[in-house]
Specification:
The chain is α/β, with parallel strands linked by helices. Helix content is 41%, strand content 16%. The strands form 6 sheets. The chain has a 7-stranded parallel sheet, with helices on both faces. The protein is elongated and about 105 Å long.
């Protein structure tokens, strides 16, 4: 027996109701549960019993109170996972984007093939913006697969972000996983054909061995993270690694049909030609077009978005050209960083060791200079390794003094530089930070020299502890001050031995009952490159869990630069201590950016920089590089990278002076010719780069999408899916009605209406639904669940947005209980009710109507037939047959009406029965309203894709009939029921 149900029809099968999807055939029904998601789609064969479903009308004997309609509407809308609007993915993703994050999405949807350079400032949310575009292209069928190219350290974070927030499962293609993945392939099958969504290590796939296969089978959507590392300026020597990365991207970009998203916070990197090369990957014409011309600017505006925090801190306000602030959105970025530079002096013992080491290094460099270029470069890198590790800590010094130099095996001067530079410099765009935090070696010879270094290593080991290591003593003092002020700091070090040494010195040891100097309630842990990226996250979360919720407990994280990129730490930490100065100030900005970003609850992030007053290095690096970088950022509002070769020139001059003249007469360095030349070149080029960046931000500010366009789409999204205020009211009222204990629910003393809830007293069904989301222990032990108005929440907290899993579980419970009149326990939402109120002057009926729409959406892969749902409030005065229909705004306002007196239950039931019996007379209006909605949705789809006629050709939206009346609520004027004295589920 063949099926005869059309797409969009309601059917009943397997004990539940379903929507028939367009993919159905006469001998196969493809079904999605009513109100369910695409993950729940099922296939039904003819031998299974299927019948047409008629949505039952509300039951007059099961009335609700004045909150019932609002709770049911929100519960229904939260459950929608297939919105009918032009943004197909927004209803189904687990993140509620900020309004400004919709701008890149709107820009992308106006392009037939999406080519974008997203260069918003650090912490604004570039990953979310790229994810929104990716999920939308996949949902619309404009893309069939996704590849993210990133550093291996960030691969797992990308995987978690895509899976947790956008529902995109992607395989990791790294050097450590590729063998396992290839074992599961069929003969001749490519890895990239088998797995449609992948996250790929750029440095693994760029090699010629793997590159060709990737380019040949590359998905039609590619996201490139930290894209600035894949290009170089025309007038600089390009490393072999950079050239391989650029060649990879150039070949990927050659396919004109491939979507390409380039993501970076630093598109310039100080060189105009590098910026042009980057733009050329997005759009070849942009590599050469005159960006000063109107034509050039218009072309760039279609593909480039770059905004500072100040541009989006307050958005959709009257200052943006809107009529009012009704849609205004204020994003709580920290207002500023408080910088404090703290100095320390070496102890006599440490000073003696440093002088001995400088004398040794100077002698070796001078001696090697007469032996040849190779020997000179090996000695140079050995000297830098020795000096940097000594300035870092006794532990790092001891390890460096007993470890062979990586450059010692070099066969040439060039190879020595290639081996020595990565471990000893802090290049802003190094291939990866993995493995760069090991302590470098200083040994280059056997015999007496090795013995001499071993002696220095023994002396270094004896300097451990705050008595002789005054840098450590200074750190303890400043950490105590931060902790006393309620801060939880991250201490950044250059080397693994230093990080482990600090953790050992600062932490409490329960086994030996040793108490650290920071107090019994301070938890200290170290995270270094010895751990895998996933282990690093696990250790940070273990630190947070160990500190617990005690308000007096504090967290201190000791970390190397393995955490200075990609990992977001703003939920756990709010201060940064630079224990070791980086020799490139961009690295400092990266460190600080881990906590100074969206979601940080501190308005002021504190930054303390420790520097040695008398070690011959730190003071000069701080003065010439770090402070200059801060000033430029303060002036422009964004970070401007110093070219690596220029910062290296300055640090080389400092080291050379130190080796030639020791620590004596340090101030004379500033008048030395070599130093003046290198700093003058640095200042000139850096100032030029800053000026170019300033002009670029001004000339090329995002102008292709006007705030009014964003406001229109935001209003449409909120109307269809609900806004933050509606969700907050729903969660608070639903939990309260279900028996939860709420604290701070009225916003008293809490920001943004934040509150907590204990759900131990709620129905078993809700507790079972919440346990997998918040943790079984939280539910069983009736612990408080924090609800935050800010969507950027920490683990264990719930955001007051429709996409939060806690909100989703609550909405599902409320909706199911409303539909099941036999459900046990409290049922805060009901499908009908009669309310006597002063809010109306004549009898008014409010209907909650569910519409289904049949969409035909053209895409590059052909037309897609979809069924989507929407819920609307409609209201009329009088009888349904000749009622006076209210505007949508007037209908929504009825949700705020409160009962002014009680309603007699028998009178209420009779009234409800009479109205429900007459509702068929309203079908004509409900159908015409559905047609109006379909026309509005059709126009919205065309508007969002207005720039490309090809994208909208064949698009259509039609309303499925009849619509479902999910709820009906009668509002009576107080005078009409003056004799009533007993409530119908209503408290006056």
């Amino acid at each position: 027996m063949a099926f005869t149900y059309s797409a969009g029809s309601l059917v009943k099968a397997r004990g539940r109701e379903w929507v028939v999807l367009p993919e159905s055939e006469p001998d196969l029904l493809v079904l999605r549960p009513l109100g369910g998601s695409d993950d729940d789609i099922a296939a039904v064969f003819p031998f299974e019993p299927v019948e047409e479903a008629r949505f039952a009308r509300p039951e007059p004997t099961d009335p609700g109170d004045q909150r019932a309609a609002g709770l049911l509407r929100t519960a229904l809308r939260v459950g929608f996972r297939s919105g009918a609007g032009p943004f197909r993915s927004l209803a189904g993703i687990a993140v509620e984007p900020r309004a400004y994050q919709l701008v890149p999405l709107l820009m992308a949807l106006r392009q037939k093939t999406v080519r974008m350079l997203i260069s918003d400032d650090v912490g604004i949310g570039k990953t979310i913006e790229a994810g929104l575009i990716a999920s939308e292209l996949l949902a619309q069928g404009e893309a069939s697969g996704l590849a993210v190219l990133c550093s291996p350290a960030l691969a797992e974070q990308w995987q978690q972000e895509l899976r947790g927030k956008f529902g995109i499962d992607a395989e990791l293609v790294l050097s450590s996983t590729v063998s396992r993945l290839e074992r599961g392939l069929d003969l001749g099958q490519s890895l990239f054909d088998r797995y449609p969504n992948v996250i790929v290590s750029t440095d693994f796939i760029k090699s010629t061995r793997h590159r060709d296969d990737f380019v040949r089978h590359c998905p039609d959507l590619v996201i490139v993270d930290e894209a600035h590392t894949c290009v170089a300026a025309d007038d600089t020597s390009v490393s072999a690694q950079s050239q391989l990365r650029y060649e990879l991207l150039r070949r990927v970009a050659q396919d004109a049909e491939r979507h390409l998203l380039l993501v970076t916070a630093t598109p310039h990197s100080g060189k105009e030609s590098a910026f042009r090369n980057l733009l050329g990957l997005a759009k070849p014409d942009l590599a050469h077009v005159n960006l000063e011309s109107e034509t050039g600017r218009k072309l760039l505006a279609q593909h480039f978005v770059a905004r500072k925090r100040a541009d989006v801190r307050q958005y959709l306000t009257k200052e943006d050209g809107l009529a009012d602030d009704s849609l205004a959105e204020r994003t709580a970025f920290p207002s500023d960083r408080f910088f404090k530079d703290e100095t320390y002096k070496l102890s006599p013992e440490y000073r003696a060791l440093l002088d001995d080491a400088i004398a040794y290094a100077s002698e070796r460099v001078e001696e090697a200079g007469g032996q040849g270029k190779r020997e000179a470069r090996i000695a140079w890198w050995s000297a830098i390794a020795l000096l940097r590790s000594l300035v870092s800590s006794p532990a790092a010094a001891a390890q460096t003094l007993t470890t062979r130099s990586a450059a010692a095996i070099a066969a040439s001067a060039e190879e020595a530089d290639k081996l020595g530079a990565p471990l000893n410099s802090d290049a802003a765009d190094s291939d990866a930070l993995e493995g760069m935090d090991v302590a470098p070696g200083a040994e280059t010879d056997e015999g007496p020299v090795k013995s001499q270094l071993a002696g220095l290593a023994e002396l270094a080991a004896q300097l451990k502890g705050p008595e002789k290591d005054l840098k450590l003593k200074s750190l303890i003092k400043h950490l105590k001050a931060l902790l006393a002020d309620g801060y939880n700091p991250i201490v950044f070090c250059r080397y693994i031995p230093t990080a482990k040494y600090l953790a050992e010195q600062l932490a409490n040891d329960p086994e030996t009952k040793k108490r650290g100097p920071l107090g019994a309630k301070t938890v200290v842990k170290a995270v270094t490159g010895e751990l895998s990226p996933q282990q690093r996250i696990e250790r940070i979360e273990a630190l947070a869990a160990e500190a617990g919720e005690d308000a007096t407990a504090r967290r201190v994280l000791i970390a190397t630069d393995c955490l200075s990129e990609g990992v977001n730490l703003q939920h756990y930490f709010d201060a940064v201590v630079h224990y070791d100065l980086a020799w490139n100030p961009t690295r400092h900005d990266q460190r600080e950016g881990r906590v100074d970003r969206y979601g940080q609850r501190r308005d002021e992030v504190r930054v303390i920089t420790l520097y040695g007053d008398d070690n011959g290095i730190d003071g000069k690096v701080l003065e010439v590089l770090i402070k200059k970088h801060r000033q430029i950022k303060k002036d422009l509002g964004i970070s401007v990278s110093v070219p690596d070769e220029l910062s290296t020139g300055v640090t080389d001059a400092i080291v050379e002076w130190l080796l030639m003249r020791g620590r004596e007469n340090e101030d004379a360095l500033f008048s030395a010719d070599a130093f003046k030349v290198s700093t003058a070149k640095l200042d000139s080029d850096w100032n030029s780069a800053a000026e170019r960046e300033r002009q670029s931000r001004s000339r090329f500010a995002q102008r292709s999408i006007h705030p009014e366009e964003v406001a229109r789409e935001v209003a449409s999204i909120r109307e269809a899916l609900g806004g933050a205020g509606e969700i907050r009211t729903f969660v608070r009222e639903a939990l309260g009605a279900l028996g939860a204990v709420l604290r701070g629910a009225d916003g008293g003393g809490r920001e943004s209406g934040d509150f907590t809830a204990q759900v131990g007293g709620t129905p078993a069904g809700l507790r079972d639904a919440l346990a997998p989301v918040v943790g079984a222990e939280v539910v069983e032990k009736d612990r408080e669940i924090p609800f935050r108005g800010d969507p950027a929440v920490a683990r264990g907290e719930a955001a007051l947005v429709r996409t939060d899993p806690v909100v989703g579980a609550l909405a599902s419970h409320v909706l199911n209980a409303a539909l099941d009149t036999q459900a046990e326990g409290a049922r805060p939402a009901r499908r009908c009710g009669v309310i006597t109120t002063d809010a109306v002057s004549t009898r008014t009926t409010l209907l909650l109507v569910r519409y289904r729409f049949h969409l035909t959406l053209p895409s590059r892969s052909g037309e897609r037939q979809l069924v989507a749902e929407d819920a609307r409030l409609l209201a009329f005065e009088g009888a349904p047959k000749n009622g006076a229909w209210l505007t949508p705004e007037q209908a929504a306002a009825l949700l705020e009406a409160t009962a002014s007196e009680n309603t007699d239950p028998h009178f209420g039931e009779r009234t409800m029965t009479r109205i429900l019996g007459q509702l068929s007379d309203a079908n004509g209006y409900l159908e015409s309203y559905g047609d109006e909605l379909a026309a509005e949705l059709d126009a919205a789809h065309r508007r969002v894709r207005a720039a490309s006629g090809e994208i909208v050709r064949g698009l259509s939206v039609t309303a499925q009939k009849p619509a479902d009346i999910l709820g009906a609520y009668v509002y009576l004027p107080a005078a009409a029921s003056a004799s009533a004295s007993v409530p119908v589920g209503v408290s006056a």
